[in-house]
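Review box. Two proteins, two foldings.
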Amino acid sequence: MTESGARKKLYLASGNPGKLREFQILAAGHALELGPLPGYAALPEFEEAAPTFAENAAGKALYYSKHCDGMVFADDSGLVVPTLGGAPGVLSARYAGIGASSEQRNTKLLGELRGKKGAERAAYFVCVIAAGLRGRANVVVSAKVDGEILEEPRGSGGFGYDPVFYFLALGKTFAELSAEEKNRHSHRGKAFRRLLEVLG
C-alpha cells in the first residue's frame, strides 16, 4: 500500500525506449508514476518462447516482478498477417533474425508479401499487457487494431512495423501519425488505457 496522497509506481519491464516513451505519454496526468524497471539491463533476459502474446506478456511480468518491490508490467505485441499464416506474430521482433533492425524486418515482410494484393495484405497489430506484483499476476488486458501492409514504407515516426502498417481509418501509416493520434488509436494505447482503468 502507498501512503495517502503518494503516487503508485508502475515499472515497465522492457529495454525498448520507443515503448517506454509511448507508455509514459499515455500515463501522463494519471495517478500512476511510470518508469523503467530498475536494474532491468543487469537481469538475465526472460526467454519469450511461448506461442501466444498473452503467455509471453504474463511470463515477463511475473519473472521481472520478482526482482522489484513495486508493480511491474510487460507487454508482448506484434504484427499478424493472416495470409502469412499469422506471421510475424509472436516472432515480430525476431522476424529477420536476432539483432536485425526494423528496416530489415520490414524488408523481409514486404518480400514475403510481394505480388499479393487487396485482402491478402490485411494485417492487424496485437498488444497484450500483463501486470504482476512480487511474482503474482494481477491483471492481463489486450487490444488490437486492423489495417493493411503497404508495398513500401511511408513516414518517419514510430518504430518497428509502423512505416508499412496502413491504418485505413485515418488514411495514414502508423509512422505518419502524430504521437497523439497514435496513442489514441494504436493497439498499445488501447491496451494500456485498459490497464490503467483496471489498476485505478
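Next protein.
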Amino acid sequence: MTGPLLSVEDLTIGTRHSGGRTVPIVENVSFDVEPGQRLGIVGESGSGKSLTLRAIAGLLPRGVEVLAGRIEYGGRDLLTMPARQRRALMGPEIAMIFQEPMTALNPVMRVGDQIAEAPQVHLGLSRTQSRERALDLMRRVGIPDPTRRARAYPHELSGGLRQRIMIAIALSCDPKLILCDEPTTALDVTIQDQILKLLLNLRREFGVSVVFVTHDLAVVAQTCERLAVMYAGQIVETGSVDEVFRAPRHPYTLGLLRSVPHFDSVQDSLSSIQGAPPDLVMPPPGCRFHPRCSFAQEDCLSGNFPLRPLSARRATACIHPDAPAADVDRSPVVADA
C-alpha cells in the first residue's frame, strides 16, 4: 500500500458536560504510522497516551469521546465507519495488548480457548484448526508445554506467561497493526526484557506496525524507531528515537531524559522536573509546560503552540528550541543517553 497505514489528525478527546461544555483531555494530536514501523508514545502518567491508543481501538471509557479529528486506517476513517465494520477490523487488522493481562483476560475461560476464539470468528477456521493455531502461537511466543498450558485459567499462570498469552491473542489473526498499552509495566525487569525481545522478534517475523505507549524511555530505546512525546494531552515533540534522545528540542523532553538514572557516571542527586502536570479543566495559558520550564520567556505565556517542523521528520511545540539544544551541549549525560 502507499501512504501511512495509520494516520491520526488533530485528534481531540474529552468529556461533555451540562450546557454543552466540553473539557478536552487529549487535544490536536497528529501522527502517522507507516507499514512495518514502530512508533513510541511517551510521557508522564495522565498525559493522554493510553486514551489516544484506546480512541484508535474504539475502546474509550464511558463518558469520554472523540470530540474532533480523524483516525484513518488504510485510508478509511474509523470515526465515521459503522460500528459493526469497525469491530470487524479489531483482530484481523488491528490488535491491542493491554497493560494488565489479569484484567484483560477472561478469568473463567481457558487461555487456549481465548487464543482460538478470534481465528474461529474472524478467519472462519474450524474448532480443531483454531485450537492448532492457538498451540502454534503459544510455541512462537515462548510458552513451554503449550498443550498443558492451554488448559489453564489465567490465575494459574505467572504474569509473564499471561502477557505472552495476550501477545498470542493479538497475533492470532495476523493483524497489520498492534497497539501496545504499556504491556511490560507490571512485569519484573528480567521478564520485561524477555517480552520486549519477543515483541521485536515477532515484529520482524510478521512485519506488523507497532504503536508502543510507555513512560519508560529505556523501553522506547529498545523497541521503537520513531517517537512522539506527550505532555498534558498534547504532542510536544516528534522525531526518530536517536534524534530526539541525542538532541531534544523541547524542555519537557530534556527533563524526561535527565530524570533517567545513569549508572556509568557519578551523580550527587537524581534530576527531576519541578512542579506537577496542569489541571486540564483549567490549563495554564500559552505553553502548558511553561510553569515548570526553566527556559520559559514572556512569549511562552500566551498564544497557541502547535508542532513546528524543524526538518522533514522532526517537529517541536517549543518556540525556543535552541534553548534546550544549547543545554544538551553542556550535558554529556543527556547527549550519551
